[in-house]
């Protein structure tokens, strides 16, 4: 994945998480998690990893409400801003 495909570092990092969990080579910012092979169990894995990476807490409901990568990244950025934190942790 090239950095210029994404609008924010959060989009890029979230795309890496999705690609790893879904076993895909690439994920684009406008793709829907469930349309590219995601399901509720994989959503749980994505949410747990995102919570770990950004050190915030949210539930699968956030991903269900924002299943497009760019939308979910925006929600994660909002959670991080509210918590006053930055992504600091490495991948799984």
Automatic annotation (TrEMBL):
List this protein's GO terms for biological process. amino acid activation for nonribosomal peptide biosynthetic process; antibiotic biosynthetic process; secondary metabolite biosynthetic process
What's the cofactor?
Answer: pantetheine 4'-phosphate
GO molecular function of the protein, one example?
Answer: phosphopantetheine binding
Under Pfam families, the record lists: PP-binding (PF00550)
- Which keywords, in A-to-Z order, does the entry hold? Phosphopantetheine, Phosphoprotein
Q: Which InterPro entries match?
A: ACP-like_sf, PKS_PP-bd, PP-bd_ACP
Q: Which stretches make up the Carrier domain?
A: 5-80
In terms of PROSITE patterns, this protein maps to: CARRIER
Which GO cellular component does the record give, naming just one?
A: cytoplasm
Signal peptide position in this chain? none
Question: What's the protein here called?
Answer: Carrier domain-containing protein
To which species is this protein native? Streptomyces tsukubensis
> What does UniProt list as this organism's lineage?
Bacteria, Bacillati, Actinomycetota, Actinomycetes, Kitasatosporales
